[in-house]
Amino acid sequence: MSETSNEKIQEVGRNIQEKAALVWSVADDLVGAFKPHEYGLVVLPMAVIKRFHDCLLPTHERVLAKYEEVKNLAVKEGFLRGASGYQFYNTSPFTFKTLVADPENIEDNFKAYLNGFSDNVLDILARMDFTSQINRMVEGGLLYQVISDFNSEKADFSPENVTAVDMGYIFENLVQRFSESYNEEAGAHFTSRDIIYLMCDLLVAGDRNAFEEDGISKTVYDMTMGTSQMLTCMEERLKALDSEADVDVFGQEFNPFTFGIAKADMLIRGGDPDNMQFGDTLSDDKFSGYEFDYIISNPPFGIPWKREENEVTAEHKQGAAGRFAPGLPAKSDGQMLFLLNGVAKLKENGRMAIIQNGSSLFTGDAGSGQSEIRRYLIENDWLDAIVQLPNDSFYNTGIATYVWLITKDKPEERAGKVQLIDASNCKVSRRKNIGNKRVDITTACRDLIVKLYGLYADGTFTETDENDGEITVKSKVLDAVTLGYNKITVESPELDENGEKVLKKGKPVADTKKRDTENVPLEEDIDAYFEREVLPYNPDAWIDRKKTKVGYEIPFTRTFYEYKQIEPAEDIAKRIEEHEKSLMSKLHELFEENE
């Protein structure tokens, strides 16, 4: 895969974008009848329908013939699927070509065509509420034109013309355009192929159990699958290693449009469409009790979980019987809930790559939900590594993002440690931006990151990219215990008007106005720290042991901070003096010229 992935990445900016732009141009016909943010309600379902149509076209006559043979049988699904060559079929005599040949009856004929699809396709269209959009197109006199647009030669979505992976990215691009026109929250972003390939390689590179005696046999799950491109690429990666790999993919999605596309993609690829489930992963888990070999996901961040609050809180109260026992994050951001969902679904030797933004590293004080989630991962020794991605890697956001690698089966040499990898300068600038995406993680970049992950060593490593540019990755392996601290509460005595300590039952009363806290590294003795850092400055202070809490944070920025020597003051003064002399000299010359 690494030999051809750069070309595939560039296709996202060329062929795929061009094809998606062609499909989106259909929106020009919708002006007036639909508002701009509603164009996707027509364009997305029509693209799905046309993909189904073009896949089924070669076996269309065979399906019609088989339907005549079995239409009176109680069970005919298997016969019709066999005739179509897919997990779906259409028994209508119409095609897009015959539909546009009869403009007078376009509404009745198109509805008859859609009703000819198998139930699994009708379910997709129902979730997209496509019937309502057909009626609106009819009212606006647009239905015939839209179908004609999709019947053009340029809109050929046959498997011979557009591969399954590329079709998935065309769908992804269309969803992105729809989301931008709808002004969705910044967290509802998409993951480009270069990032997905990096996540796939990191998952496989660290998997000691990737190859069994009979070859690769893996299950893969994405809890926020979108159009299922992470699952598709993970399957592609495993089959590049073993062409006979047995890979079963599973996913859940809450957006009816992206879910429809994911299920459509699964149908076309011949997988089990029941593995694609619709619903909110946090409040309506469709894979309760399942465990997977690999989990790969990019959940939304910066999105409140108030909608799921009742269900999530109830499951949290179940303790170990639920997914959210360790703690609940702030209601303003639910990304760490997805992290816990993934951990709950990992096999004992499973591995997860999940994207988080910077807040998961450090927000939340000791005892908070976020800190307790980090504590849960670190004290169970499941946090393997965190990789900082370059800024401007995503279509819809330019903020710092990180790939967390979680494993329940660390090798001995990694036990009790966490590797931090700063790959923020391992990137190649794009010639043409796609939204906020200004850089790519090319093959050379990805290989360096994966290589460093495998080396498991401290240091700064520099190589050249495909254009002879410099790419740099930094690595630091930390003892997990250094990520934790004891937050102690330091009390000082209350004094009366005479400056004497106020006592109660012979003990000094704490002055709440003077109460302070200190974070003591876990590996350091609390009393030794207190004697060294507090008592010399406050001899009467004491620690309220009942208030001590354990906290964890991941100081990514501080770990890779490089101190730069400040220029000596005399050098600065000398430089300013020289600048002033130069400026005065030019002013004198100017005045002399004007005399």
From TrEMBL:
Q: Tell me which UniProt keywords the record has, alphabetically.
A: Methyltransferase, Plasmid, Restriction system, S-adenosyl-L-methionine, Transferase
One Pfam family assigned to this protein is: HsdM_N
**What reaction does this enzyme carry out catalytically?**
a 2'-deoxyadenosine in DNA + S-adenosyl-L-methionine = an N(6)-methyl-2'-deoxyadenosine in DNA + S-adenosyl-L-homocysteine + H(+)
The DNA methylase adenine-specific domain covers 167-432
Q: Which segments constitute the N6 adenine-specific DNA methyltransferase N-terminal domain?
A: 22-150
Biological process, per Gene Ontology: DNA restriction-modification system; methylation
**Domain of life of the organism encoding this protein:** Bacteria
**Class of enzymatic activity (EC top level):** transferase
Give EC number(s), comma-separated. 2.1.1.72
* Alphabetized GO MF terms: DNA binding; N-methyltransferase activity; site-specific DNA-methyltransferase (adenine-specific) activity
> What is the protein named?
site-specific DNA-methyltransferase (adenine-specific)
Q: What organism is recorded for this protein?
A: Selenomonas ruminantium subsp. lactilytica (strain NBRC 103574 / TAM6421)
